[in-house]
Amino acid sequence: MLQLVDVSKQLGVVITRVHQMLRDRQILAIKRDGVLAVPEAFFGEDGHLLKSVPGLIAVLHDGGFRDDEILTWLFREDDSLEGGSPAAALHTHSAREVVRRAQALGF
Q: Which H or E run includes 46?
């Protein structure tokens, strides 16, 4: 998990931009010990936000999922996906499959 200030540094943006990304649901955060943190799985090895994350969050949100449900779904074990979970699969060639499955959940 990355604290918001760490996300800001990693992306090379001001902290207010990270707050805007949260409001726009480009990323999600959970509160741990009173501090908001973003899953590291949302970012690639280069430190940039994975391009599929904002769209995936939008698809799940539009399908009626709350933020906590989205995070639960992303990190739920799924052996049928490369990497073992939707979040891990976003780092593989299975990212489109994750988005397809998310779209199917909304119907």
A: none
15, two tokens: 């902290």
pTM above 0.70, yes or no: yes
CA distance 79 to 77: 6
CA of 84: how far to CAs of 23, 34, 78, 79, 90, in Å?
Answer: 29, 29, 5, 5, 11
d(CA 31, CA 46): 25
Burial (CB count within 10 angstroms: exposed 0-12, middle 13-18, buried 19+), residue 28: buried
Which pLDDT tens digit goes with each residue over 34-89? 999 999 999 999 999 999 999 999 999 999 999 999 999 999 999 999 999 999 99
Give the DSSP H/E element, type plus range, for residue 36. strand 35-38
